[in-house]
Design goal:
This protein has 3 helices and 14 strands. By secondary structure, it is of the alpha+beta class. The chain has a single domain, classed as Alpha-D-Glucose-1,6-Bisphosphate, Chain A, domain 4 (2-Layer Sandwich), CATH 3.30.530. Strands 3, 4, 5, 11, 12 and 13 form a 6-stranded antiparallel sheet that branches. Helix 2 crosses helix 3. The radius of gyration is 23 Å and the shape is elongated. 23% of the residues are buried.
């Protein structure tokens, strides 16, 4: 009888332990922005757009630098050892890459239309230029926009979405430049 009672207690402890483990493994949203005024803003984790380019990494690196320069994006990250180039924090208003911001960014709509058309858009745009081991290169582009209404009294930034077009445009331009060389 004691053995049966001991086994029942043990089984109860084992099942209680597994229940708490599964409830703690629930995926959580990524914190995109945190400030004392607004708290923490949560959204989906950014996803990189990827392209394989049949050119050496050094050629692709120079092509990425040229595209950033053509788009007037200052490089604050240029680290060949980690294969990363770009800028984690700059802003543009109304246009980027010679096109309307609304082509690339979705911050929702207000009474006057798309918020991305008038908001200051704070941007993190990073490119990873990674050798593929066969003489080619894999390029990953991560674009994270946030919007701020500068016409009113608000200083809060809101998370915005990407349409995926800026990342694709960057990859297309880099591919075209790398093939020319």
């Amino acid at each position: 009888m004691r053995r049966v009672l001991f086994l029942l207690v043990l089984a109860g402890c084992a099942s209680a332990g597994s229940t708490s483990e599964t409830s703690n493994s629930t995926p959580k949203q990524a914190a995109l922005y945190s400030s004392p005024e607004t708290g923490v803003l949560l959204a989906e984790r950014p996803r990189a757009s990827v392209a394989a380019i049949a050119a050496p990494p050094a050629t692709v690196w120079l092509a990425v630098k040229k595209v950033y320069a053509d788009w007037d994006i200052p490089l604050t990250v240029e680290n060949p050892s980690t294969h990363q180039i770009g800028n984690q924090n700059f802003f543009k208003t109304r246009q980027i890459a010679g096109r309307s911001m609304t082509d690339f960014v979705d911050c929702g709509s207000g009474m006057t239309g798309a918020k991305a058309a008038t908001y200051r858009i704070y941007i993190s745009l990073l490119s990873d230029v990674i050798p593929d081991g066969n003489g080619g290169t894999k390029v990953q582009v991560t674009f994270v926009p946030m919007g701020q209404d500068v016409t009113g009294g608000s200083t809060d930034r809101i998370p915005c979405g990407t349409t995926g077009r800026l990342e694709q445009l960057l990859l297309d331009r880099v591919t075209a430049l790398a093939r020319k060389t």
